C-alpha cells in the first residue's frame, strides 16, 4: 500500500507535536483535546507513522513522539482500526527499523511490540522471520534495530514464542541468537544475551537443548569490556543457578570468584551480581560451595550496605529536622487492608480468639520483606545494592547460623564503633540483618550491644537513629525476655523519644520498631501504659500525613497486645478524643479511613465496654459506608458507562470494624443492631464476588452470632446455604471464616442445626482430610465438626471413622479454650453414639485427650469414662499391648490425668 499525506494535514500534526513538548499545562491540555479529536479520522494514524519513519526533515524527539502517540492509539483503539491502515503501519515499521537514529529505531521497536501484543503474533506471521533475516544484514543499524525489537518481543511474549500455535519459532531463534554472542558490537552482544535470558526461568525446551553452548558463551563474555554485557551475563548466571544448577556445578568455584568481583563493580552490575548470593542461599549446596569463600564475601556484602553519596543526597541525609515539611501525596504508598481471619492460638503463643493474619494472595501467611521498607523513600524504594546486600547477609546468616560469626564479629567491631557515621550506620544495619540467623551466637554479646544501640538512638545523624530503631526491633524478642529494668525500660524510653523525633524518617522507623516491641512484649507493657499513651497521643499533633498512618498502626498493635488492660478511664480519656477527632475530620471517600478504621477495630476489641460512649456514631458510619459501597456497586453494574466501580475496601474495613465492635461490646451491641438494616446488608455482602468481602462478612456473622443471636436467628435459612457454598479451600481465608461461623451458629441453634448438616458436613470432612489444608483451617474445621457433633450427634457420628484421626491430630496443638471445650464434648457424644468409629484410631484419641492442661470437671469425666470404657472392652492383656505403642510421655500424662 502506498499512501501520501496532504501537506496541510502534515503541517498541522507537526505543529501539534511541537506544542505538546511545551511545559505549559494549559497548552498541553489543549493539545491533548486536539489529539483526541483527530482520532476520529482514520488516516490520522497514517500521518503519525509517516512523521516517525519518513519525515527526516524534523528533529528526532518530534518524530519519536509521533511514534509514541501512535503506540498509545494502537493500545487503546487498535482493534477498531481498518486492516489496511494496520498493514501500512506494519510495513513502514519494518522498513524503519534500520533508521540511522538509535532513538527512531528504539521507538519503532516499541511500536512493533505493541502491535504484536495487541493483535497477537499469530496475526503477523511474517514478523519473526523478517526480523531474524534482518539480523544477518550487513548494515549495522538494521541488525541492531531488529535485535532491539526482538528483545522486547522476547520480554513480552516468552510464553507465546514457546507455543505450538506459532509452530515453535524458538527452535530457529535461539541457535540464531547464540551466533551473536561473539559479535563485534557490544550492544548486539548484550541484546543476544538479554533475548535468551527470557527463556531460562521457564526451562524452555528450545534453550535446554543448547544449554551447554549457552553457558560456554556466557563464560566467554564474563570478562567483556561492556557494562551492559556483564550485567546480562550476571543476570543469566543467577537464573541458571535456580534452574540448571547441575550444569553450573563443575564451574561453581570460578563462578563464585567471578561474582565476588562483579559484586564490587561501581555500576548496576553489582546489584545483578549481588542477587547471586540471595539465590545461592536457597540452594541445598550453598554451605558446601560457599564455605571456602565466606571470609572474602562477608566484607564485600557489609561494604555494599554502606550508603553511597548519591543515596544520601536523595534521602536528604543531611537534613536533620523536617517534621514541619508536609508530605507529598506521591510519597505515600498505598496501604492494603488486612482482613480479619479467625485463628486458633497454639498451646504456646500469646493472644486470644480472633486474630488478624496478613492475607497476601490468600496464602496462609505472608512475611513482609524487612529490606523493602528499610530506607522508605520514593526514590530509594527501588531495590538497590544496599538492600540486596543486607538481604543476602540475612539469608546467609540463616544458612550458616553461628558459623558466620567468627568472620562477622571482627567486621562488626570495626564498623559499629567507627568514627565515620556512614560506616557505623552500615555496621548497625549488618547487626540487624544477622539477628534471625545468628541469634544464639549473638546472645553472649547482647548485654554489651543492646545498651550501645540504645545510646545510638540519640546519635546526631538521623539516618543512624532510624536504622538503629530497625536493628533494635530485630532483637526485641531477647530484650523482652530479660529483666525489664536492665534493657526493656531504657529501650522503651529512648524509642518513645524517637517517636517524637524532629526527623520524619526517624519517627517512622521508631513507630514501626515500637509496634514490633509491642507484639513481642504483649502484657509486659501494662505497667508503662500511661507513659506510652502520652507519647503516642502527643505524636498525633506532631505528625505529617504519612507517619500519621503508621501511628494508627502502632496504636492498633498496642491495643491488640495489651487487650482489656487498656480499659481504664484515664487511658480512654487520653486515647479516644484524638482518634475521634480524626474520625470526624475524614470524609467517607478518604482512604485514610482504612488505617484509622483498622486501629479503631483493635481499640474497640480491647476497650470492650469502655468503648460504649463512642460506639453509636462509629457503628452508624460503618453501616453507611457498607450501604454506599453496595449502592455504588449496583449503579456501576446496571449502567457501567455512567458510574465507576466502587472501592470495596471501604466496605471490607467497615465490616471488620463492626466485627471489632461486636467482639468488644458483646451484648451491648444489641440496641445498635436492632435499629439498623445490618442483616440485609450482611446478606448482600456474603454473596459478593470479591473473596475479601465474603471473608470479612463471615467474620462479622460469627461475631454477631456470639453477641446477639436473637437478631441473626430469623435469617439462618438464608445464611447457612451461603456458608455451605463457601466451604471451598481454594480461598483459604473465606473458607476459614465460613467454617468458624458455621460452628458458632450451631452452638446457638442446638438441635435445630439438623436440617443444615447435609449441606456442610461432606465438605468439612473433605477439607480436614486434604493434605494441603493449612493448619489454621484444619483447626477451625475440627472445632466446627466437633460442635456439629455436640448438637446433632446422631447425624454426625456415623461419619466418625472418616475424620477422627485428622480431628485428633489437628486439635492436640491448640491451647485450652471454650472452642476446644465444645469440640471435645462433641467428640465424646459422637463416640458414645458410634464407639466402633474410633476403634482403629484410638491411639490418636488418647493423644488428643492428653493435650488438655486442665479440662472442666464434667469434660474430664467424659474423657475418662471413654478411656476406661475402651480399656474394659478390650481386656487387660490387649490394653497392655496397646499401651506399649505409646511414647513414654503420653503414658505418663494419661496416668496422671485420667488414672489409666
Give a short overview:
Keywords: Cytoplasm, Nucleus, Protein transport, Repeat, Transport. With about 900 residues, the protein is mainly alpha-helical.
Please explain how this structure is put together.
Its main location: cytoplasm. The protein is mostly helical. The protein has a domain at 769-899. The protein contains 50 helices and two strands. Strands 1-2 form a two-stranded antiparallel ribbon. The longest helix has 27 residues, at 612-638.
What is the average per-residue confidence, as pLDDT, rounded to a whole number?
88
Alpha-beta content class: mainly alpha
Helix content: 55-70%
In what order do the strands lie side by side in the largest sheet? 1-2
Number of strands: 2
Beta fraction of the residues? Answer: under 5%
Cα distance spanning the termini: 95 Å
- Determine Rg (CA atoms, Å): 33 Å
Low-confidence runs (pLDDT<50, min 5 residues)? 348-368, 376-380
Shape: globular
Number of helices: 50
Reported for the largest beta sheet, the result is: 2 strands, antiparallel
Amino acid at each position: 500500500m502506498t499512501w501520501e499525506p496532504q501537506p496541510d494535514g502534515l503541517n498541522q500534526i507537526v505543529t501539534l507535536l511541537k506544542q505538546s513538548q511545551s511545559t505549559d499545562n494549559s497548552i498541553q491540555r489543549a493539545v491533548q483535546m486536539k489529539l483526541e479529536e483527530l482520532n476520529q479520522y482514520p488516516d490520522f494514524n497514517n500521518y503519525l507513522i509517516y512523521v516517525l519513519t519518513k519525515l527526516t526533515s524534523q528533529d528526532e524527539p518530534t518524530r519519536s513522539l509521533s511514534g509514541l502517540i501512535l503506540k498509545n492509539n494502537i493500545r487503546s483503539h487498535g482493534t477498531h482500526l481498518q486492516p489496511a491502515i494496520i498493514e501500512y503501519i506494519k510495513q513502514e515499521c519494518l522498513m524503519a527499523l534500520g533508521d540511522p537514529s538509535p532513538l527512531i529505531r528504539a521507538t519503532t521497536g516499541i511500536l512493533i511490540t505493541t502491535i504484536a501484543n495487541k493483535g497477537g503474533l499469530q496475526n503477523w506471521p511474517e514478523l519473526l522471520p523478517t526480523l531474524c533475516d534482518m539480523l544477518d544484514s550487513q548494515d549495522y543499524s538494521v541488525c541492531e534495530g531488529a535485535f532491539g525489537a526482538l528483545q522486547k518481543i522476547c520480554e513480552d511474549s516468552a510464553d507465546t514464542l514457546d507455543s505450538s500455535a506459532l509452530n515453535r519459532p524458538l527452535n530457529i531463534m535461539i541457535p540464531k541468537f547464540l551466533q551473536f554472542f561473539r559479535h563485534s558490537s557490544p550492544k548486539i552482544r548484550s541484546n543476544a544475551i538479554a533475548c535468551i535470558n527470557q527463556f531460562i526461568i521457564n526451562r524452555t525446551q528450545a534453550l535446554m537443548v543448547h544449554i551447554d553452548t549457552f553457558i560456554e558463551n556466557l563464560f566467554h563474555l564474563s570478562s567483556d569490556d561492556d557494562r551492559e554485557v556483564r550485567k546480562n551475563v550476571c543476570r543469566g548466571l543467577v537464573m541458571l543457578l535456580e534452574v540448571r544448577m547441575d550444569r553450573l556445578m563443575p564451574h561453581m568455584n570460578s563462578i563464585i570468584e567471578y561474582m565476588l568481583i562483579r559484586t564490587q563493580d561501581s555500576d548496576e552490575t553489582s546489584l545483578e551480581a549481588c542477587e547471586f548470593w540471595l539465590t545461592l542461599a536457597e540452594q541445598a549446596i550453598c554451605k558446601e560451595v560457599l564455605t571456602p569463600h565466606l571470609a572474602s564475601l562477608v566484607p564485600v556484602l557489609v561494604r555494599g550496605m554502606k550508603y553511597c553519596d548519591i543515596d544520601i543526597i536523595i534521602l536528604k541525609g543531611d537534613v536533620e529536622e523536617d517534621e514541619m515539611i508536609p508530605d507529598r501525596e506521591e510519597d505515600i504508598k498505598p496501604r492494603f487492608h488486612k482482613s480479619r481471619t479467625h485463628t486458633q492460638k497454639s498451646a504456646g503463643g500469646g493472644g486470644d480468639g480472633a486474630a488478624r493474619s496478613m492475607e497476601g494472595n490468600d496464602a496462609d501467611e505472608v512475611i513482609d520483606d524487612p529490606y523493602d521498607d528499610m530506607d522508605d523513600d520514593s526514590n530509594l524504594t527501588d531495590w538497590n545494592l544496599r538492600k540486596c546486600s543486607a538481604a543476602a547477609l540475612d539469608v546467609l546468616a540463616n544458612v550458616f547460623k553461628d558459623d558466620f560469626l567468627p568472620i562477622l564479629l571482627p567486621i562488626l567491631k570495626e564498623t559499629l564503633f567507627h568514627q565515620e557515621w556512614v560506616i557505623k550506620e552500615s555496621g548497625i544495619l549488618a547487626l540487624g540483618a544477622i539477628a534471625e540467623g545468628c541469634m544464639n551466637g549473638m546472645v553472649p554479646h547482647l548485654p554489651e550491644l543492646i545498651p550501645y544501640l540504645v545510646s545510638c538512638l540519640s546519635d546526631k545523624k538521623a539516618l543512624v537513629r532510624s536504622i538503629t530503631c530497625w536493628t533494635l526491633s530485630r532483637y526485641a524478642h531477647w530484650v523482652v525476655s530479660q529483666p525489664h529494668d536492665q534493657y526493656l525500660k531504657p529501650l522503651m524510653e529512648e524509642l518513645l523519644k524517637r517517636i517524637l523525633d524532629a526527623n520524619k524518617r526517624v519517627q517512622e522507623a521508631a513507630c514501626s520498631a515500637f509496634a514490633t516491641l509491642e507484639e513481642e512484649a504483649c502484657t509486659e507493657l501494662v505497667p508503662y501504659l500511661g507513659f506510652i499513651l502520652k507519647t503516642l497521643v502527643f505524636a498525633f499533633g506532631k505528625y505529617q500525613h504519612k507517619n500519621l498512618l503508621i501511628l494508627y498502626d502502632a496504636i492498633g498493635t498496642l491495643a491488640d497486645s495489651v487487650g482489656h488492660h487498656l480499659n481504664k478511664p484515664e487511658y480512654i480519656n487520653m486515647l479516644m478524643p484524638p482518634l475521634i477527632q480524626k474520625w470526624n475530620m475524614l470524609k467517607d471517600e478518604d482512604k485514610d479511613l482504612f488505617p484509622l478504621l483498622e486501629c479503631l477495630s483493635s481499640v474497640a476489641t480491647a476497650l470492650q465496654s469502655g468503648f460504649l460512649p463512642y460506639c453509636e456514631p462509629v457503628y452508624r458510619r460503618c453501616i453507611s459506608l457498607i450501604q454506599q459501597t453496595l449502592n455504588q456497586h449496583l449503579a456501576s453494574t446496571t449502567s457501567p458507562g455512567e458510574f465507576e466501580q466502587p472501592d470495596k475496601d471501604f466496605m471490607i474495613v467497615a465490616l471488620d470494624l463492626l466485627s471489632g465492635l461486636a467482639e468488644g461490646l458483646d451484648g451491648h451491641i444489641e440496641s445498635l443492631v436492632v435499629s439498623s438494616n445490618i442483616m440485609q446488608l450482611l446478606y448482600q455482602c456474603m454473596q459478593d464476588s470479591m473473596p475479601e468481602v465474603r471473608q470479612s462478612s463471615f467474620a462479622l456473622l460469627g461475631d454477631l452470632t456470639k453477641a446477639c443471636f436473637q437478631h441473626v436467628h430469623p435469617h439462618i435459612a438464608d445464611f447457612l446455604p451461603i456458608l455451605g457454598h463457601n466451604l471451598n479451600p481454594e480461598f483459604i481465608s473465606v473458607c476459614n471464616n465460613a467454617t468458624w461461623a458455621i460452628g458458632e451458629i450451631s452452638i446457638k441453634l442446638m438441635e435445630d442445626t439438623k436440617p443444615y448438616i447435609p449441606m456442610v458436613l461432606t465438605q468439612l470432612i473433605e477439607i480436614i482430610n486434604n493434605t494441603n489444608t493449612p493448619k489454621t483451617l484444619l483447626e477451625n474445621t475440627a472445632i466446627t465438626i466437633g460442635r456439629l457433633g455436640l448438637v446433632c450427634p446422631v447425624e454426625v457420628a456415623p461419619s466418625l471413622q472418616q475424620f477422627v484421626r485428622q480431628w485428633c491430630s489437628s486439635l492436640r496443638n491448640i491451647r485450652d479454650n471454650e472452642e476446644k471445650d465444645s469440640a471435645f464434648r462433641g467428640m465424646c457424644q459422637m463416640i458414645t453414639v458410634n464407639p466402633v468409629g474410633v476403634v482403629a484410631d484410638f491411639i490418636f484419641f488418647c493423644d488428643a485427650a492428653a493435650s488438655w492442661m486442665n479440662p472442666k470437671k464434667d469434660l474430664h469425666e467424659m474423657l475418662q469414662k471413654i478411656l476406661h470404657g475402651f480399656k474394659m472392652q478390650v481386656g487387660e492383656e490387649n490394653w497392655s499391648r496397646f499401651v506399649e505403642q505409646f511414647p513414654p510421655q503420653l503414658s505418663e500424662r494419661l496416668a496422671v490425668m485420667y488414672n489409666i
